[in-house]
Design brief:
- The protein contains 4 helices and 12 strands.
- With 232 residues, the chain is α+β, with helices and mostly antiparallel strands.
- Among the domains are: 73 residues, Beta Barrel (Elongation Factor Tu (Ef-tu), domain 3); 84 residues, Beta Barrel (Elongation Factor Tu (Ef-tu), domain 3), CATH 2.40.30.20.
- It has a 6-stranded antiparallel β-barrel with strand order 1-2-5-4-3-6. A 6-stranded antiparallel sheet has the order 10-9-12-7-8-11.
- The longest helix has 16 residues.
Length: 232
């Protein structure tokens, strides 16, 4: 490939990425198999919930979700985060979509608790050039936490080994929502939930004892991985 053709291909990819959420054409949303200059583009989220969907049905591995906003531009194979868990669209209609959920995903997330009528947080991947309103979220759940205190003075208990990735006023994802943690304990952290967040996410209906998906800040995990070989 010549330098000119490589530059042209990169420009085309960049234009397609920038049009993801603005274009009504589903083809503009097709995931890239490669990134600019051959660097793979990973699908990432921001933890800013776009829509509250509703579980319409669960039939074995097949999960059907009623939604509208996240269907805009989401074709077959598109990624959509459900309570912070990245799932792949395998079928859709005018106001619903379906995903195949593996036993592994059910066992490691609160999607195992999903019942018809439950509300779920939904988000499409961000596109290059968009504002990063929350923080970088991969849609890979690290563990399941438990609500100790509901919003607005939210307190979450998580597996103690995950607490090392949290710092005071640091970012954490709860059910796909980018939040700021404080008042860190041995296995708990607090979040001050504003009324708007409670209204537009599942935090408004979460009660003590409910299970929530937790994703820790990926930057903290990368730093830990980098310094491990240098530990005494």
């Amino acid at each position: 490939m010549t330098r000119a053709s490589a530059a042209g291909e990169a420009a085309t990819d960049l234009l397609r990425l920038r049009k993801r959420r603005a274009s009504p054409n589903p083809a503009a949303y097709r995931p890239l198999d490669h990134g600019l200059h051959g660097i793979r583009v990973w699908r990432v989220f921001t933890g800013i919930v776009e829509e509250l969907g509703t579980i319409a049905a669960r039939d074995g591995s097949r999960l059907r979700i009623s939604a509208s906003t996240v269907l805009d531009g989401s074709g077959l194979g598109a990624s959509i985060a459900v309570n912070g868990c990245c799932l792949t669209l395998v079928a859709s209609g005018a106001d619903w979509w379906e995903a195949e959920v593996s036993d592994e995903t059910y066992s490691r997330t609160n999607l195992a608790d999903a019942r018809a009528g439950d509300r779920v947080n939904l988000e499409r991947p961000m596109a290059l050039g968009e504002r990063l309103g929350g923080h970088i979220v991969l849609g890979h759940v690290d563990g399941v936490g438990t609500v100790v205190n509901p919003a607005p003075d939210l307190r979450i208990r998580i597996p103690a080994h995950l607490m090392r990735y949290l710092v005071e006023k640091g970012s954490v994802t709860v059910d796909g929502i980018s939040l700021t943690a404080f008042n860190l304990g041995p296995d708990t952290f607090d979040v001050a939930v504003i009324p708007h967040t409670a209204d537009v996410t599942t935090l408004g209906v979460r009660r003590a004892g409910d299970r929530v998906n937790i994703e820790m800040d990926v930057l903290a995990k990368h730093i830990e991985r980098l310094i491990e070989p240098h530990k005494a």
